[in-house]
Amino acid sequence: MIHEIVSSDVELARGMMDSGRSDTEILAYLASRSVEPAKAAQLVDDLRHGRKPSAQLPFELRPAAPSAVGGPRTAGEEAQSAKHAHRKRSGSGKHKRSAIPWWFVILLGITALALGYLLLGPGSSAPTDAINNEKHEIPPAPGK
Prior knowledge:
By secondary structure, this protein is mainly alpha-helical. Among the domains are: about 5-50, no CATH class; about 105-135. About 55% of the residues lie in helices and about 0% in strands. The chain has helices at about 5-20, 25-30, 35-50, 75-85, 85-90, 100-120, 125-135. Helix 2 crosses helix 3. The longest helix is centred in the last third of the chain and has 19 residues, at about 100-120. The protein is elongated, with a radius of gyration of 36 Å. The protein starts with 6 loop residues before the first helix and ends in an 11-residue tail after the last helix.
């Protein structure tokens, strides 16, 4: 759980204030989102008095490491590299999903086999053989 105030909490509190909600309602809702009560009260106070609230990003943004392009590494980057060494060994870590699910491919294969059997199966050769061997007879004319 995130116990810090994130930007969505700020937007939520601002929207609730604009809609005329009381401070206790806003604090209760922020508490239900696992925001610490003291930080929630500070957020409401900052918004009421026009101060810019301090919000944390829900994730940490890191700049691209210079080592990715072959530059020298600093001691901090070496520590980060050692900390996340298992990620580099396990491959790229970015698995691309296929656009077509596996079950759909199997279903198409089964459908193609069934159509092939119906169109080229043994039932279609009998009328062709009868025509080629002239085994069919012309029925007699009516009344004869």
